[in-house]
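Students often ask why we bother encoding 3D structure as a string. The short answer is that it lets us treat folding as translation between two languages. Here is a chain of 215 residues written in the first language.
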Amino acid sequence: MALRSRRADTVEALQELLAAHVALMHRLTFAAQQLHQEGELSAGRRGVLLSLHNQGPRTVPQLARMRPVSRQHMQTHVNSLAGDGYVELVDNPAHRRSRLVRLTAQGEQALEQMRQREAAAFAQLRFAFSASQLRAASAVVRGLREALTGPPWALLAESLRPPGGSRRSGSPRADAATPRARRFDARRPAARRPRARAARRRKSGRKSRDNAGRS
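And here it is in the second language, the structure alphabet:
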């Protein structure tokens, strides 16, 4: 009974932490807009630049999986950064059709300016946490991220998914149809079936009138 109580207390504490983390992420998105003055894409643009700086050139799908967000969402950030000259698309030796996104010298400079602004702001920010407390918090967040990554979590999520549940649009792989759905769509798109039936009825009606006229 005591073990169950401790487990319930841990779960409640985890939920509180996750709620606080989500609220912080929303606040950080707005703070990035205020600090870097690059509109609603400020936080996303910074994140892409930092990923390319730390990990080198990546494809758009690879960048999307790191978040994770949809490929289309990531393409928006890449197009914006490329338009400003912060990234460039180069040939990918491993995949002819999926080009690599590479940080330019201008992008490196823009990222460094962002980090300097953030360091200046954080140095003046008032909070009652020591460096050791902040590093301990970082370790907790990294541990939770690892726990929510990989096959064990995927199997657990699958076992608890509601009956008939499916991925929401916009989530990773949400836009990828199942093999059966792809075959069906390739054979006859669902949106076109009513129009196809109407066209057949009109054609049949014209043939009937023509036959009646000849008789």
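Translate back mentally: The longest helix spans residues 2-36. Keep this in mind for the problem set.
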